[in-house]
Design brief:
By secondary structure, the protein is of the alpha+beta class. The chain has a domain of about 80 residues: Alpha-Beta Plaits (2-Layer Sandwich). It is built from 2 helices and 6 strands.
Length: about 110
Protein backbone atom coordinates (compact mmCIF):
# COMPACT_ATOMS: atom_id res chain seq x y z
CA UNK A 1 0.00 0.00 0.00
CA UNK A 2 1.25 3.48 -0.84
CA UNK A 3 0.89 5.96 2.05
CA UNK A 4 0.88 9.76 1.77
CA UNK A 5 2.31 11.81 4.66
CA UNK A 6 1.77 15.57 4.76
CA UNK A 7 2.77 18.46 7.03
CA UNK A 8 6.27 17.09 7.50
CA UNK A 9 8.92 19.25 9.10
CA UNK A 10 11.41 20.48 6.50
CA UNK A 11 14.18 18.71 8.43
CA UNK A 12 12.67 15.23 7.94
CA UNK A 13 14.49 13.01 5.44
CA UNK A 14 13.90 9.58 3.84
CA UNK A 15 15.66 7.73 6.68
CA UNK A 16 13.46 9.49 9.27
CA UNK A 17 10.29 8.34 7.47
CA UNK A 18 11.70 4.81 7.19
CA UNK A 19 12.40 4.72 10.92
CA UNK A 20 8.99 6.19 11.84
CA UNK A 21 7.05 3.55 9.88
CA UNK A 22 9.37 0.60 10.59
CA UNK A 23 7.68 -0.19 13.90
CA UNK A 24 4.51 -1.07 11.95
CA UNK A 25 6.11 -3.51 9.52
CA UNK A 26 8.22 -3.93 6.42
CA UNK A 27 8.92 -0.82 4.36
CA UNK A 28 9.47 -1.13 0.61
CA UNK A 29 10.38 2.55 0.19
CA UNK A 30 10.24 5.86 2.04
CA UNK A 31 10.66 9.13 0.15
CA UNK A 32 10.41 12.78 1.19
CA UNK A 33 9.56 14.83 -1.88
CA UNK A 34 11.99 17.67 -2.57
CA UNK A 35 11.90 20.72 -4.80
CA UNK A 36 13.78 19.92 -8.00
CA UNK A 37 15.49 23.33 -8.10
CA UNK A 38 16.41 23.94 -4.46
CA UNK A 39 16.56 20.38 -3.11
CA UNK A 40 14.54 21.53 -0.08
CA UNK A 41 11.76 19.33 1.28
CA UNK A 42 8.28 20.19 0.05
CA UNK A 43 6.78 19.04 3.38
CA UNK A 44 5.28 15.76 2.23
CA UNK A 45 6.34 12.25 1.33
CA UNK A 46 5.35 8.69 0.58
CA UNK A 47 5.94 5.34 2.25
CA UNK A 48 5.29 2.04 0.48
CA UNK A 49 4.43 -0.99 2.63
CA UNK A 50 3.81 -4.43 1.06
CA UNK A 51 1.43 -5.62 3.82
CA UNK A 52 -1.87 -3.73 3.57
CA UNK A 53 -2.88 -4.67 7.12
CA UNK A 54 0.38 -3.32 8.57
CA UNK A 55 0.03 -0.20 6.39
CA UNK A 56 -3.48 0.45 7.71
CA UNK A 57 -2.20 0.07 11.29
CA UNK A 58 0.52 2.62 10.49
CA UNK A 59 -2.06 5.04 9.08
CA UNK A 60 -4.30 4.60 12.11
CA UNK A 61 -1.40 4.95 14.54
CA UNK A 62 0.39 7.89 12.95
CA UNK A 63 -2.38 10.08 11.52
CA UNK A 64 -2.52 13.32 13.53
CA UNK A 65 0.57 12.27 15.55
CA UNK A 66 3.32 14.72 16.38
CA UNK A 67 6.56 14.07 14.52
CA UNK A 68 9.59 16.35 14.64
CA UNK A 69 7.53 19.15 16.16
CA UNK A 70 4.62 19.06 13.70
CA UNK A 71 1.30 17.20 13.61
CA UNK A 72 1.39 15.03 10.50
CA UNK A 73 -1.46 13.73 8.36
CA UNK A 74 -1.17 10.14 7.15
CA UNK A 75 -3.54 8.69 4.53
CA UNK A 76 -3.74 6.15 1.74
CA UNK A 77 -2.10 7.79 -1.28
CA UNK A 78 -4.37 8.54 -4.22
CA UNK A 79 -3.19 7.55 -7.70
CA UNK A 80 -1.19 10.21 -9.50
CA UNK A 81 -3.25 12.24 -11.97
CA UNK A 82 -1.55 12.92 -15.28
CA UNK A 83 -1.27 16.61 -16.05
CA UNK A 84 -1.48 17.94 -19.57
CA UNK A 85 0.64 20.83 -20.79
CA UNK A 86 -1.48 21.09 -23.91
CA UNK A 87 -2.86 24.62 -24.01
CA UNK A 88 -5.46 23.73 -26.61
CA UNK A 89 -7.33 21.26 -24.44
CA UNK A 90 -10.59 23.14 -24.13
CA UNK A 91 -9.99 24.01 -20.49
CA UNK A 92 -10.37 27.31 -18.73
CA UNK A 93 -6.97 28.71 -19.63
CA UNK A 94 -6.35 31.67 -21.87
CA UNK A 95 -5.15 29.76 -24.92
CA UNK A 96 -7.92 27.37 -25.73
CA UNK A 97 -11.47 26.30 -25.23
CA UNK A 98 -13.44 29.43 -25.72
CA UNK A 99 -13.36 33.13 -26.33
CA UNK A 100 -10.83 34.27 -23.73
CA UNK A 101 -8.90 37.52 -23.42
CA UNK A 102 -10.12 39.11 -26.59
CA UNK A 103 -9.71 36.20 -28.96
CA UNK A 104 -12.15 36.59 -31.84
CA UNK A 105 -14.50 33.62 -31.85
CA UNK A 106 -15.28 34.28 -35.51
CA UNK A 107 -11.86 33.05 -36.54
CA UNK A 108 -10.59 36.38 -37.92
CA UNK A 109 -8.26 38.80 -36.16
Amino acid sequence: MNIYISNLSYGVNDADLQQLFAEYGEITSAKVITDKYTGRSRGFGFVEMPDDEAAQKAIDGLNQAEFDGKVISVNVAKPKVERSNNYNNGGGNSRGGGNHRGYNSGGRY
